[in-house]
Hints:
By secondary structure, the protein is of the alpha+beta class. Helix content is 42%, strand content 16%. It is built from 6 helices and 7 strands. It has a 5-stranded antiparallel sheet with strand order 4-3-2-1-5, covered by helices on one side. A hairpin with a 4-residue loop joins strand 3 and strand 4 (43-46). Helix 1 runs parallel beside helix 6, helix 3 (100-122) packs antiparallel against helix 6 (212-235) and helix 4 (137-147) packs parallel to helix 6 (212-235).
Amino acid sequence: MRSWFEKPGLTGCAGIEEGFITQTSRDGGRHPHSIRYDWAGWSIIPCVMSATTRMETGAPAWSVRLAFELSGNDQSAQAVAGGLNEEQMNWQPAAGKWSVGQCLEHLCLTNDAYMKAIGAAIEGKPDSPVEQITPGWFSKWFIRSFIEPSPQSKKATTWAKIRPGARVDAGVLDRFLAGNRACRELVLRARDKNVNQIRFRNPWVPVIWFTVGTALEIIAGHERRHLLQAERVRDAAGFPR
């Protein structure tokens, strides 16, 4: 399925453009989704299209898609953790099981490490944009096995550096949202680079190298996995209301 961003023009707000994402489905149909796009902050909210003349922005499809996914993860995090007090944020469904706050803290720690490595990797690299992220066989297996939420996913040991503490303060949601804003800015910096060729060492397993594109896919998919975990915690029967 291919996605790309098209825009009719400025709305009158500085840095804001109205447009829509068109997705081509397997049956060949094109399905537009109306959005308002803030290029400076990479925030996306639904809107109503106000013009008929459209043009492509030239942004690679992968960068627009990941910006959408990160914004969707923001909404999921706010839905599951917004308004929770410290007791609720730290409630665990069982001994050794993570709380909502611990899920978010783990994502903050992991994302920070990946984003620092990605930022260093793309620094000074020549512009050579690609339309899509194309992970290799190992990266596909890694994402399928350890990152994307699915019944087939494997549970891996969490490295000490990204293991959340026993208790998490209620500000963890704000830290997560701030981290995702920084990640969208990183996507903005990386979109003109060849994210399928620029590589860096995995921050915890130095013998493994990831491309920048694979790492950005990992960030978005890893967030989905643990936000679903946090949602299950909040929906548990014993969760304090």
